[in-house]
């Protein structure tokens, strides 16, 4: 007698997290014991950020529930809307598991709902340490809600254990970023140049920077320090991507719009594969995105990491950290341009593991969801 398929509800709220989740979503969909359910919310539903829910549909995924967030909602307003929408869907459908990734308000909303409705929660990329943002608190709060943990590194797994979680629930399988970067064929430089209206003969730089409201440096100075540094690279084409919905994003977006008159290519969002292809073809990624710490190393592209947003996150030798100082940022860009040329496209060493993570997560979910005691968590004293 075959076992009934377990419904795994994947909740996604941002363009970046969706790209990371894809290999696991595909593995769940292909697994004989699992059934993929998909709830889309957060930035995916906002016109300001390109309404990337449409990208998910174009990729061939069925969206089982769309939980919209009102335009111009602040982070707390968005969180409340997400909790209400996820609650309503879970009450109707009663999934066997909720799967989330990372540390933003959308997975936090899903964790709160799953906890109150007694639904097992699985969490990817818990145990990480970044910098002084609300994400840090959210990430560890989700850990305490979660019944299954899929940390990306052994250090992250150790942090989860230090939060009194049971070792039997912790599976350090590597980062799903490896799947996203290593398993897909990227676009050629010529193809990227055509789509983004770039000169393929000139070198490229990418700016992806988010506001960091918990740092002492004013938001306007955070972004202007970087854009001032970019003036030293007149010959480079500049690709600029909108920040996320964190507090202060309107300050960053205003500055990014201003850059258009200087010939910068400014985008609300880039499809996952196009973004990865552009990064691979660029001299560097500049800003403070976790993508610059994790994904870019697999692509052989170094990162200039600005400020403290990613301060504690594990990284390889591809990352140079700089403060909010135009001269130091410009000097770091010059260094990584030389580094990029010397590597000739060769990936950098990474602490985040090898490809195949999504399949390993799906197999673990299928096995662990048969455990009738999964919801019975115990506080482990050290």
TrEMBL record:
Single Gene Ontology MF annotation: hydrolase activity, hydrolyzing O-glycosyl compounds
Pfam families, A to Z: Epimerase_2
GO biological process, one term: UDP-N-acetylglucosamine metabolic process
InterPro entries named in the record: UDP-GlcNAc_Epase (IPR020004), UDP_GlcNAc_Epimerase_2_dom (IPR003331), WecB-like (IPR029767)
Superkingdom of the organism of origin: Bacteria
Domain UDP-N-acetylglucosamine 2-epimerase: 27-365
Official protein name in the record: UDP-N-acetylglucosamine 2-epimerase
Gene source species: Candidatus Kaiserbacteria bacterium GW2011_GWA2_58_9
Upper taxonomic lineage: Bacteria, Candidatus Kaiseribacteriota
């Amino acid at each position: 007698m075959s076992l009934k398929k377990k419904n795994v509800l994947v909740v996604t709220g941002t363009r970046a997290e969706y790209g990371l989740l894809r290999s696991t979503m595909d593995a769940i969909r292909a697994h004989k014991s699992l059934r993929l359910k998909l709830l889309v919310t957060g930035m995916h539903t906002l016109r300001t950020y390109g309404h990337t829910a449409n990208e998910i549909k174009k990729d061939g995924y069925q969206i089982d529930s769309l939980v919209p967030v009102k335009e111009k909602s602040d982070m707390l307003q968005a969180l409340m809307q997400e909790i209400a929408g996820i609650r309503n869907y879970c009450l109707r459908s009663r999934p066997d598991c909720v799967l989330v990734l990372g540390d933003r308000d959308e997975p936090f909303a899903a964790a709160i709902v799953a906890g109150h409705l007694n639904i097992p929660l699985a969490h990817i990329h818990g145990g990480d340490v970044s910098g002084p943002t609300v994400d840090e608190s959210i990430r560890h709060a989700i850990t305490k809600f979660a019944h299954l943990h899929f940390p990306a590194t052994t250090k992250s797994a150790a942090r989860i254990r230090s939060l009194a979680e049971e070792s039997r629930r912790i599976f350090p399988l590597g980062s799903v970023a490896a799947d996203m970067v290593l398993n897909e064929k990227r676009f050629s430089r010529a193809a990227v140049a055509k789509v983004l209206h770039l000169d393929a003969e000139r070198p490229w730089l990418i700016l992806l920077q988010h506001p960091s409201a918990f740092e002492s440096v004013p938001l306007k100075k955070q972004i202007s320090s970087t854009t001032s540094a970019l003036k030293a690279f007149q010959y480079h084409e500049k690709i600029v991507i909108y920040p996320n919905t964190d507090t202060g994003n309107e300050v960053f977006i205003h500055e990014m719009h201003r850059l258009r008159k200087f010939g910068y290519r400014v985008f609300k969002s880039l499809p996952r594969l196009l973004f990865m292809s552009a990064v691979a073809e660029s001299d560097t990624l500049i800003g403070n995105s976790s993508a610059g710490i994790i994904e870019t190393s697999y692509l052989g592209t170094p990162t200039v990491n600005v400020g403290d947003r990613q301060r504690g996150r594990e990284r390889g030798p591809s990352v140079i950290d700089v403060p909010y100082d135009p001269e130091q940022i410009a000097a770091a860009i010059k260094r990584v341009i030389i580094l990029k040329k010397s590597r000739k496209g060769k990936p950098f060493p990474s602490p985040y593991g090898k490809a195949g993570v999504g399949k390993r997560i799906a197999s673990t979910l299928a096995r662990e969801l048969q455990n009738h005691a999964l919801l019975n968590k115990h506080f482990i004293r050290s």
